[in-house]
Amino acid sequence: MPELPEVEALAAFLDGKLAGRTVAAATPVAFQALKTYDPPLSAIEGLTFDGVGRRGKFLDLRVGDLHLVVHLARAGWIRWKDELPSGPVRPGKGPLALRLRLAEPESAGFDVTEAGTQKRLAFSLVRDPAEVPGVASLGIEPLSPEFTAEVLRDLLRTERRQIKGVLRDQGTIAGIGNAYSDEILHAAKMSPFKIAARLTPTEVDGLHAVAVATLTEAVERSRGLPLTELKSEKKSGLRVHGRKGEPCPVCGDTIREVSFSDSALQYCPTCQTGGKPLADRRLSRLLK
């Protein structure tokens, strides 16, 4: 799933390609992904892009007075093409969800695609991004100046959930998903199942510092890369996530995994749980 660093890189890439250019056609292909009808998607045709930004994991494409807001979900991606196919697009079972063609250069534009059978990608055309429910409910941006250690302490003070779940909650902190929450907790030497409210002030300060550092480093690694390289760059930069069975790069212990119904987390027992493996069941607890 694209998370804050990858969506930030996508936004920067598209901003460089689209700002000042006019929309010739915007064609929805996966109609279930289009979440709004007023204004219609055709309303952006003939309008000029003002720029592209990011809100959490959402792309915000500003077109005139309107916003095309895209959430790539787990398997969505943006594919830029200097020469889009000239033929008409037809709805079907393929990965194409949206095609946007520029007026100039005539054949350039991008496709929004989604792999797999679980179709969760969404795009909306709105007058204000806050009209998109997922945007309206976003929590604080972790790379904003407002995200201080004191703010994080306030967020966690009465939080009875496990810290892994809190970091992934977009209504609490925007943009962090499964992969970077694993990376942050590994860098903080913290169990993913520790109750957030039980963190000491020192632990919260450390968590804040490594969260900002981890995301900043990932953004810098992604900056300026072609879209075709962003996914592989993300994978190569991860130290524990997706690396079950490999040695921890810090201590050499074997990276373990806890599986859930629709996701999995990875961690290092030596670095994060005092050497104790976590039980691999849905309601996981430390093995005793």
Under CATH, the homologous superfamily of the largest domain reads MutM-like, N-terminal
Strand content: 15-25%
Shape: elongated
Secondary structure class reads alpha+beta
Termini distance? 33 Å
Q: What series of H and E elements makes up the topology?
A: HEEEEEEEEHHHHHHEEH
CATH topology-level fold name of the largest domain: N-terminal domain of MutM-like DNA repair proteins
Q: Strand sequence of the main sheet, in spatial order?
A: 1-6-7-5
Summarize the structure.
With about 290 residues, the protein is an alpha+beta fold.
Task: Write structural notes for this entry.
There is one protein chain. The radius of gyration is 20 Å and the shape is elongated. Strands 1-6-7-5 form a 4-stranded antiparallel sheet, covered by helices on one side. It has helices spanning 4-18, 133-136, 149-156, 163-168, 178-187, 201-222, 227-237, 269-272; strands at residues 23-28, 49-55, 58-63, 66-71, 76-81, 96-102, 109-114, 122-126, 256-259, 264-267. It is 28% helix and 20% strand. The protein contains 8 helices and 10 strands. The chain folds into 2 domains: 4-136, Alpha-Beta Barrel (N-terminal domain of MutM-like DNA repair proteins), CATH 3.20.190.10; 149-272, Helicase, Ruva Protein, domain 3 (Orthogonal Bundle). A hairpin with a 4-residue loop joins strand 9 and strand 10. With 288 residues, the protein is an alpha+beta fold. The two termini are 33 Å apart.
